[in-house]
Amino acid sequence: MVHMAVSKSTRNIFPVVNDDNFLVGIVTLDDIREFMFDTSMYDKVMVESFMHSAPELIFHESDSMQEVMLKFQNSSAWNLPVIKNGKYLGFISKSKLLTAYRRKLINFTKEDAN
After folding, report:
1. How far is CA 89 from CA 15, 45, 57, in A?
2. Using the 8-state DSSP alphabet, how is residue 7 labeled?
3. How many whole angstroms separate alpha carbon 24 and alpha carbon 19?
4. Which 3-state string (H, E, C) describes 34-63?
5. Could you point out which of 21, 33, 40, 80 has its C-alpha 20 to 30 Å from the C-alpha of 106?
């Protein structure tokens, strides 16, 4: 995991998926920090030992924007996994979502003013 995901990423949260791309859990940088730089542990500690469930899941097909924001609020998470057709699609960031919303509001207000 450290070589294949962490070293090549700028994120601090990583999905754990099975061969069929179903999400089985998540791992955060905080979860692996104590093992990350100890290469002697790489063959001894398995991902399953520090993986945990996502605080919430975003369902691409059915969750409304209101439901998505409620999931962010209730979970206090800043990134949540998105599931599409039962499979892991990616993470959605609360900050990017809010930035996109702000841009839409600005554009909407500008159009309304004209």
Report:
1. 10, 27, 11
2. G
3. 10
4. HHHCCHHHCCCCCHHHCCECCCCCEECCCC
5. 80
Residues 84 and 71: their CA atoms lie apart, in Å, by 17
DSSP state of 19: T
Q: Does domain 56-114 have CATH number 3.10.580.10?
A: yes
Share of the chain above pLDDT 70, in %: 85
Mean pLDDT rounded to a whole number for the chain: 84
Separation of CA 3 from chain center: 19
Q: Answer whether residue 5 shows pLDDT above 60.
A: no
23 forms bridges with which residues in the sheet?
A: 17
Structure tokens at 25: 């859990």
pTM listed for this prediction = 0.77
The tokens 């059915």 sit on which residue?
Answer: 62
Token pair recorded at residue 22 = 């179903």
**Tell me: the pLDDT tens digits for 87-107?**
999 999 999 988 988 888 888
Query: How far, in Å, CA of 95 to CA of 6, rounded?
Result: 21
